[in-house]
Amino acid sequence: MDVRALRYFVETVRHASFTQAAKALFVTQSTVSKMIRQLEEEAGTPLLIRDGHTARPTDTGRVMYQRGLQVLETMRQLSEELRQTTDLRRGALEVGIPPMINLLFTPVVKRFRERHPGIHLTLREGTGQAVEGLVASGELEVGATILPIAPDGGLAAQPFGSYPIWVIGPPDAPWAGKTSLPLSALRDARLLIPTDDFAITRRLRQAFADAGFQPGVAAQSAHWDFLVAMASAGLGVALLPEPLMQRMKTRGLSTAKLAKSGMQWDVGHIWQHAGYLSFAARAWLEVCDEMLGKPKKTPARGASR
């Protein structure tokens, strides 16, 4: 059913006149008459009683008028909701963020809520692998993860940060006093690293393998502060990305940047390569660009892990 014809009919009933309806709609009277005739043909019954210059609804016309008012109001509300969505005054967005990355997003969330208070924002935590899977399946529209991502996952990646890895050990570590360490300095170390479902652990293992050795692992934990506590107790050396290391209590411990290893903690956003990004998701990425640094102009497909 033509919504425009329905609108013309409702206006005609409201004014009880083809002439007055045409004036209210800024169209010709013949246009109103034509549209209402089409509506009557579609309904299969007369909707108006034409009496000189007046028009009154038939019994079916009264039903059409009441329902027409409801349909037109629904269409008005739909248009308003669509406009509010494109204007970012309403909507919902769920972003996947690994626990190790979430500390970077405090200023982003604050700015996003200030700028778009009408958008309901939910942060869904999970490992980088879990977030990648949720985005690939379409359950999440956008997420953050450790880069690079697998090239065959159908995902696009946009980096927003690259940070060095730090080594944290007891006060009497053999390398105490040094500000940077090569990867080879950890050949005989006992490592304190995150569990294997963390991308940084997989990358560390690969970096050591590429260097031709594999240090022993003293312990693994998903809790960063526990890794530092174990390092403080002399159980081994912890390896943490810089943003996390800066938030740990390392006073009195030996700390050094892992240098000349080609190993960085690279983080970025991901979404389906051929997928649609909502207005809310685009707004989220814009705020991230502002708060976390400008990304490359063209988002690239991720390289292999």
Secondary-structure-derived class? alpha/beta
Fill in the CATH topology of the largest domain: D-Maltodextrin-Binding Protein, domain 2
Give the termini distance in whole angstroms. Answer: 54 Å
Strand content: 25-35%
Shape: rod-shaped
Number of strands: 13
Give unreliable regions as ranges.
295-305
Rg from Cα: 32 Å
Q: What's the number of structural domains?
A: 3
DSSP summary: helix tally: 10
Helix content: 40-55%
Average of per-residue pLDDT values: 87
CATH class of the largest domain: Alpha Beta
Biggest beta sheet summary:
11 strands, mixed
Family: Belongs to the LysR transcriptional regulatory family.
Organism: Achromobacter agilis
InterPro entries: HTH-type_LysR_regulators (IPR050950), LysR_HTH_N (IPR000847), LysR_subst-bd (IPR005119), WH-like_DNA-bd_sf (IPR036388), WH_DNA-bd_sf (IPR036390)
GO molecular function: DNA binding; DNA-binding transcription factor activity
Note the main attributes of this structure.
305 residues, alpha/beta, D-Maltodextrin-Binding Protein, domain 2, 11-stranded mixed β-sheet, rod-shaped, disordered C terminus
3D structure, described in words:
This protein is α/β, with parallel strands linked by helices and 305 residues long. The chain has three domains: 3-86, Winged helix-like DNA-binding domain superfamily/Winged helix DNA-binding domain (Arc Repressor Mutant, subunit A), CATH 1.10.10.10; 91-160 and 270-301, Periplasmic binding protein-like II (D-Maltodextrin-Binding Protein, domain 2, 3-Layer(aba) Sandwich); 162-265, D-Maltodextrin-Binding Protein, domain 2. 40% of the residues lie in helices and 25% in strands. It has ten helices and 13 strands. It has helices at 3-15, 18-25, 29-43, 59-86, 106-115, 128-137, 199-210, 224-232, 242-245, 279-292, and strands at residues 48-51, 54-57, 91-97, 119-125, 142-147, 155-169, 180-182, 190-193, 216-220, 237-241, 254-259, 264-272, 300-301. Strands 3, 4, 5, 6, 7, 8, 9, 10, 11, 12 and 13 form an eleven-stranded mixed sheet that branches. Strands 1-2 form a two-stranded antiparallel sheet. Helix 5 (106-115) links the parallel strand 3 (91-97) and strand 4. The radius of gyration is 32 Å and the shape is rod-shaped. The two termini are 54 Å apart. Mean pLDDT is 87; it is low at 295-305. Pfam families: HTH_1, LysR_substrate. Belongs to the LysR transcriptional regulatory family. Keywords: DNA-binding, Transcription, Transcription regulation.
